[in-house]
């Protein structure tokens, strides 16, 4: 297809990357209500909200850092050769307006925003925010039918509750999503799980409902190619959501996150797993838990922006007009 030049990013040959107002990948800013909003096929969205964080806050500042770092992305993927901005109309849709003072209102605001995106036939690619942001996105995208999910993380985020009954934290979004019928657990694969634990509650729940958990030791033993083959097979041909927590990556390569866990993949493997999503019917995706207050020299934001670009490229390989 031929993409309108309006949706072409500003080139570093025309304006230095340190100049101008930063948008995701230097794309045009097309918020809801814009005259060309309905023409967008993939919308990059900031979710500057960390109301579900239970320990070290900071991911609310992630979208701003990721926007700035994403100005380094160029037109073509150096490994796959994909040129996503020529394959589909992309734009920065702006930020979900957060409410840092009210968790439930924050969730409702996000669901409303993403319902508007879904109604316009736009596939969302989100920069969070903490991992609780995934729940309202799924509520909007999977309102009519459950979707599959491929989830990269060091934690399952399948816990029932925190602190004696707090049901909505960044450790519970996918427990709620299964309970609400938003996810088909038999089409869900969680990759990279590791670290010390409180107990086996989350793993037991996963087994009970049919979620496949691939712990980090299995990931390292089998390798990217074999693990991702299984994840694609479990996702099948149906609509699938991709959720990528930056703490999937070893903190040596991504220190800027609130709950780091050692022993993870390196930065090259972090990109490889996304490239291996080719063929998955991606209804939407997110990258969450980038926390600039804990970053060193912006390296986590640079990696996060690179992961977002890889996600955009695999979405471009099977473009679709809408998600309705």
Kindly describe this structure.
This protein is α/β, with parallel strands linked by helices and 324 residues long. Helix content is 31%, strand content 17%. The protein has helices spanning 62-70, 84-87, 103-119, 134-141, 173-179, 201-209, 216-222, 224-235, 267-275, 299-316; strands spanning 42-47, 90-95, 123-128, 147-152, 183-193, 212-215, 239-245, 281-288. Strands 2-1-3-8-7-4-5-6 form an 8-stranded parallel β-sheet, with helices on both faces. Helix 1 (62-70) crosses helix 10 (299-316) and helix 3 runs parallel beside helix 4. The longest helix is centred in the last third of the chain and has 18 residues, at 299-316.
Layout of strands and helices, then pairs:
Blueprint: E1 42-47, H1 62-70, H2 84-87, E2 90-95, H3 103-119, E3 123-128, H4 134-141, E4 147-152, H5 173-179, E5 183-193, H6 201-209, E6 212-215, H7 216-222, H8 224-235, E7 239-245, H9 267-275, E8 281-288, H10 299-316
Parallel strand pairs: 1-2, 1-3, 3-8, 4-5, 4-7, 5-6, 7-8
Name its key features:
single chain, 8-stranded parallel β-sheet, 8 strands, alpha/beta, Arginase, Chain A, 324 residues
Instruction: Quickly count the domains.
Output: 1
Number of helices: 10
Going by CATH, the architecture would be: 3-Layer(aba) Sandwich
- The total beta strand count reads 8
State which percent range the strand residues make up.
15-25%
Which CATH first-tier class would you pick? Alpha Beta
CA distance, first residue to last residue: 21 Å
Question: Strand sequence of the main sheet, in spatial order?
Answer: 2-1-3-8-7-4-5-6
Indicate the percent of residues in helices: 25-40%
Specify the CATH homologous superfamily: Ureohydrolase domain
Radius of gyration: 18 Å
Residue-averaged pLDDT, rounded?
96
| General form | globular
């Amino acid at each position: 297809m031929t993409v309108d030049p309006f949706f072409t990013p500003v080139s570093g040959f025309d304006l230095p990357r340190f100049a101008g107002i930063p948008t995701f990948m230097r794309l045009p800013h097309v918020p809801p209500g814009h005259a060309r909003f309905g023409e967008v096929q993939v919308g990059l969205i900031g979710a500057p909200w960390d109301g579900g964080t239970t320990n070290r806050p900071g991911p609310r500042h992630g979208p701003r850092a990721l926007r700035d770092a994403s100005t380094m992305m160029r037109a073509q993927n150096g490994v796959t050769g994909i040129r996503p901005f020529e394959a589909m109309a992309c734009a920065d849709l702006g930020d979900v307006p957060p409410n840092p003072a009210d968790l439930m209102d924050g969730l409702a605001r996000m669901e409303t925003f993403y319902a508007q995106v879904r109604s316009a036939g736009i596939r969302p690619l989100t920069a969070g925010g903490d991992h609780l942001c995934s729940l309202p996105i799924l509520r909007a995208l999977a309102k009519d039918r459950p979707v599959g999910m491929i989830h990269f993380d060091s934690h399952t985020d399948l816990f029932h509750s925190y602190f004696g009954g707090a049901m909505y934290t960044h450790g519970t979004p996918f427990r709620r999503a299964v309970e609400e019928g938003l996810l088909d657990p038999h089409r869900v694969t969680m990759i990279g799980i590791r670290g010390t634990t409180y107990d086996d509650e989350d793993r037991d729940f996963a087994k009970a409902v049919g979620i496949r958990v691939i712990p980090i030791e299995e990931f390292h033993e089998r390798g990217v190619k074999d693990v991702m083959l299984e994840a694609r097979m479990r996702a099948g041909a149906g609509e699938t959501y991709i959720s990528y927590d930056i703490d999937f990556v070893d903190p040596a390569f991504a220190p800027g996150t609130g709950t780091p866990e050692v022993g993870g993949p390196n930065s090259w493997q972090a990109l490889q797993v996304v490239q291996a999503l080719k063929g998955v019917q991606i209804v939407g995706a997110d990258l969450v838990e980038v926390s600039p207050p804990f970053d060193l020299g912006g390296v986590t934001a640079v990696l996060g922006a690179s992961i977002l670009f890889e996600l955009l490229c695999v979405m471009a390989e099977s473009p679709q007009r809408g998600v309705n």
